[in-house]
Structures are given as structure tokens and as C-alpha cells.
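ENTRY TYPE: paired fold submission
RECORD: A
CONTENT: sequence, then C-alpha cells
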Amino acid sequence: MRPIEGVRFTLLTREAETPYSGMLPGVVAGRYARDEAQIDAGKLVRFAGGRLFRDEAIGIDRVGRRVLCRSRPPVRYDLLSLDIGSRPNTQSVPGAAEHAIPVKPIDGFFERFEGVLARVRAGRSRRVLLVGGGAGGVELLLSVASRLRREAPDAAALEFTLVAASEDILPTFPAAFRARFRAIMADRGIAVRAPARVVNVEPGGVTLADGASLAADEILWTTEAAPAAWLAETGLPLDGGFVSVDATLRAADDVFAAGDMIAFAPGAIPRSGVYAVRAGPLLAYNIRAALIGRKLRPYRPQRRALAIVGTGSREAVLTRNGITLAGEWAGRLKEWIDRRWMATYTDLPAMAEPGSAMVSPLADAAAVHALSAAAMRCGGCGAKVDATVLSRALGRLVPAHRDEVLIGLDSPDDAAVFDTGGPLLSVHTVDYFRSMVDDPFVFGKIAANHALSDIYAMGATPSTALAIVTLPYGPEKMVEAELTDIMLGANEILRLAGCALVGGHTSEGAELALGFAVNGQVERAGFFRKTGLRPGDALILTKPIGTGTLLAADMQGRARARWMQDALRHMTRSNAKAADIFRHYQAHAVTDVTGFGLLGHLVEMTRASWVDADLVLASIPVLDGAHDCIAAGFVSSLQPANLRFSTAIRNLDIARQPPSAALLFDPQTAGGLLAGLDNSVAASCLQALREAGYDRAALIGRVQLATNTAAPIRLLDPAECT
């Protein structure tokens, strides 16, 4: 990569994993796994040194130079490049938007097609109709027919029809090419209605312009592309609703555009992936040139593109310069081209290791190793100081004594409790850590959620918060944008919690960091503690673990974007409802699972309660991808320190079995609550948690009588759990 000093690159995308349209029919036909046909934008952006914001653009404020988003604050820009694609035009035909399945946006088609598969397998659907006679529609219907006939309980009962408004299918292709596909579709038993224009779509079929009706259980829509409606409100030059660009792919001084969403002013070009892909390198060059003041280059579309269209089998048909050829060799050529292109975006080099520096002769080996790894230290709760170091440092302190302090430094609890003399007790906590995600808005939500969690773990209600923010050095407008985003995200969470942001402090530093000092209130007899576990109690965990290893892998561009999105979903989920549910079921002890990992926090509870505990490894919920990341060796920088808790495990032989046991030591950011409660109410409590949105909540073990050993934790197989 060739970064430009002073330039920050941000990718705003609705879906972090982008399907490659050229391989979509192969996925549908079952020839490729879904992951083989998707570009992971998270890995790609990490490799490029940029930022990934997952949201959908819904407008542009060109005066303020801001992209308006569906779910986050506007994103500021100095230079903007648009490539939001297009989608089949379902608005011009009544009922199409409600009853047809559009192929684009492709990122949603996979899920929609899974629904079709399920209905066909169950025998509820047997008539499939596709509207659109272009190459995409023809290839897709052939692939759909191939897949469904393999998986339907009665393949002979299936019916497939293609409807095209043009005089023939594939109208822009040579006559020999069209004839070849006519023959293939006839041989496969696929009916073709062309020319035939659909004028109405209803549940169960379509109506044609000549008044004829065609019955259909599933209606797929691949008609001509339609642009996003909001482009009309941007003030950009448009042609038929598409953004008009000049020869350099520029729509305005500060806006470039490419792909299916453009109208190329120098001359019409097909809205085909072949042309969009070829425009990529030129677009990248011109963006760089605009940033550094160089002359832009014109885009020269190829006059004749090679077209290879699959047939739903191993064969394909290709054409170029009027010549049409077909066979399995053409299918192999298409697969080779597609896989080679995908590899340029998926087989990325490993990220560079931190550079070496002069080593002082005064530094011992441990210090050299620790300092050399500093460049890759984790953010989030993985940035905590390890528990042993913390205990030793705090053990040297003698705080001032006050009778009003009911829970303070001498207790392992999640927050301090102060008696103000009224009917309620005051609860105090503070949290602060470096950012571990690209989007400051999302980071603000995670940091606020994490800080509030200690209040909820005490059974308290948050009331006020003070913010502590460290902002990276930079131009004033960038610092302001970063501060605005991070505080908007945080305040969204605080407001939902009924917690008033009453002030704070900012400072400049090398990295973005955020924390909160939160105050809450709790009834005198109603607060939770880590003490109180009783033999026979069920142990319930409300969220899956694995954020530490996923964040560590993401730092090095090795975590899949969908894994990270799932992890972020859990990290931004509040523990407030879980605390209420535990209060309702009269939990005996509660804590939140954060930096010291599941095992570390459970050990704190067992030692404070003078009990032992059995954990069932297979029952512990784990985030998607966490097993893959920990098995690949991606661990948080706090993980080695957390491994000291392994001395608390009685049967270490099981603890050494990777990768599940390793996740016991994984530091969590904005993790779930861990509670012990009477076993007789465990099932009802779990049901209530899942109904409240904690879909991965699980019963993970039991509390046992103390054995008076230094190792209170025993790991069990499911069959051993009683």
C-alpha cells in the first residue's frame, strides 16, 4: 500500500461482506461455498490502513460535505467516491416490490434464496418464474433449476419459466449465443416467454401485457437496473436517475462515482461487472491524483469484452468478437478467471510486524519482549493491567477510612458502595480503555455500555456519568468530527439507560480512548455482590465469550467481517434487562465478565463465596469465529496474564485442550453478566433472558461445596454435569 500522509480513508458500506456477482450463480447452483464468493471488506480495509463504518448511505449534504447515514451520524468527507450499485426496477410494476424477490442488492439475495430452498424442500413451492432476459437472469435461472432439482422431494413436479420483455433472451448478444441458450433451456425443460411484459405481480403469479396470467410460487426479479432514489436530491448531475460522470469518473469537483450507478457521459457502457472491475484501477489512480494535485486520467472502456455465461452445470458459453464457443473447458476458464480475481482481494499478505529498534543493554529479555509487542497491544478490556500486578500495586495503598464506604478497595466487587444516609445507597464505578474498532460512534456505544455494566452487576440503576476522552492529534475539523461521533454514540447508550451525562474531561494523546465515571443508586437490601454463591446454584452466563481473540485477529486483518459484526452486536447490547431478570429470580451473586475473562471472574466469585464450581465447556456460549481465531493463535495482549488463573482449575489436563478451554482466559469487552441462582428457577430464568434478547444466554455449570483446595474450578464434559 502507498498511504498519503495526512489522508484518512473510510469505507462506508451496508454489508461488510460483499458478494461477487460473477460467482453468485455458482453459489446458487451449489458449486461454490458462500464464503468463496464474498469479499471481506473488513480484512481489505484493515490491509489498506483505512476505517470501516458499517451503515447505509441515504443522502449527501454537499454543502456540509457529509454523507447522511441510516443509523449513525453523518460522515464528513473532503473527497467522496460513490459506488452504491443499483437494483432491479420493481417500482414500475404494481406488486413487484411486495411479491417478487429482487436479485440485487446481492448481499441480501443469499438469505432470500435460502427461503426459496426451504419452501421447495418442504414441498410448499414448485413453480419458479424469473422476470428478466439478460445474461444475469438466464444464468441465474439455470443455476436455480439445477439446485432445486437436486434438493426437491419431487424434482419432476418442478416448473421453471423465464419471462423477457425483449424480442428474445440475451438481446445484446450474437444470434449464435442466443440460439445456444435457447437450446439449453429447452433441453432443461425451462419455458421461455419472450417478448412478454409483466404488468402486475400478485401472490401466486404474474399478469402479462396481453392479459395472460402465469402461475408462480416463487418470483425472481432481474430486470433493468434502477438507481437509488435519494440521488435525485443530491444536486449531482443525473442522466435517467444515474449519476453522470465525465471521462475521469468525476461527477463534481469533490465527488467521483463508478459501477452500476453511473451514466458515462462520453458514451454509454453496459452496466456489467466486467466494465466496473476494469474501472477500478483508474478510479484509484484518479482519487490519489485529486488528493495530491496531479492530472486525472480518462477511463477508456474496452470496446469488446469477453463474455462467459454459465449454464448451471460444469459447462459455460463464451463469446467475443462475434464468435461463440461452449463446453466444459469454457466453464473451467470462467472459474479460473473468477477465482483469480477473487484471490486479489482475499489472499492478502500478512500485515507487517512492528519494526526493530536499538535495544538498551539495561533491558532484560522480558522487558525487550514486552516493549517490542507494544505496537500490537489490544484495545478494549484487553488493555487492562493484569490482575496480579493490580493486586500488588493496590495492596500497598492505605485509603482514608470513612464509615460511609460500605464496599471499597478491600472488596472484589464490581463497584464501590457509599452510604449517603438516605433510603438508597450510592454506587460508583469507572472504566476507561483505548479504542478497538474503526468507527468512533460504535466505540462510544461500546465504552458507555461497558461502563454501565458494573452498575448493573451491582443491581443498581445508573444516574449520572462523567466522560474521560483522549483524542488523537490532528487537524481541528478531524478532532471535532471524532469527538462528536464518539460522544453521540456514548450518549445514545446513556440516554437509553436514563443516565445523565453531566460533564467530563478531554485531552490529546496518541490513540482514541474513552471512559466514564458512573454513579448509580440501589436499595439498601437489594444490591448484588460477587459473594453469596451457594452449593447447588446454577451458573448462568448472558452473552457469548470471545471478544478478546476476535479483536486481536481483527487488528491483524484476520477476523471475518461477519464475525466482528456479530461481536459488536453483543458488545452494544445492554446488561440492564439481564440485571432486572436476575433480580426477579433472586440471584444470589452476580458479576460482569470483562477483562479477566470468564474464569478469572468466576474465581473471584468462588473465592469470595467460599465455594467450588463445575463448568461445562461445551455449554459455554462462544461468539462466531472465536474458536477459529483462538486456534489460529490470535490472543489478546491480556490473555497471557489471565492464564495465571489456570492454577484455580483442578483438572488442568482438560484445560489444556484447545481451543475451547483457551477461551476461558479470553478478556471480554462489554461482556455479559454471570449469575448464580437457585437451580429450581434456572430454566425459567433462561427463558426470560432469551425472550428479552439475550439469545445466547446459557446455563454453564453448577456451584459445589468447597473442597478447601486452592483449585475451586472443575471442568466437565456434558455427560458429567449433574
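RECORD: B
CONTENT: sequence, then C-alpha cells
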Amino acid sequence: MKKIYLVVGNTGEYDDYYYWNVVAYATEEAAQARVNLLNNLLSEHKLDNESYPYSVYTDEEFGPHFDAVRNHPLGDPKLRVDYTGTNYFVAEVDFIDQ
């Protein structure tokens, strides 16, 4: 069976856990490259789940970092950031071509 590879974003924990699909790729390598790019952008702007709880952005400082990830040409227009930061991963799903 054919597979496609989803780039998935996630943030939060327990009842406040959110995840969303960003884009699908035909190859796992392409999806992983996009995940790496997105996670690097998050890290660069201290919005990843390793840095964010410890970053001390004021509301005014947060906006430009958030916008930089959302508005990057290969960024995530559906980006969400919770108190836990954000992370991306690849999910493999079956593809049925009918």
C-alpha cells in the first residue's frame, strides 16, 4: 500500500494538547526535511518545547518571533504555541488513490 508522510505540529499537554497537520509529502525524507526546518525555526526563535518555558518574552517581544515562523516561506501558517512550546514530527499514513 502507498504511504504519505504528514508534517504534524503539536503543543500543550493533557487536556490542553493540540496537534495539527501542516502539509503532506510523498517521501519520508522530504517530510523529515520540512520537520527539521520547522523545528530549527522554532529553536532559533525560542518557541520550541525545550526553550519556550524558559524564554521570557513580553507580549510585545513574542509577536515578531511567532510571525517569523508563521510567515517563513516554508513556515507554518497554523502555528500554535502553548506554555510547553511547540514541536513538529512526521506521521506516516496509508494513501488510497481511487
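NOTES ON RECORD B: The chain has a mean pLDDT of 89. The chain has two helices and three strands.
STATUS: closed
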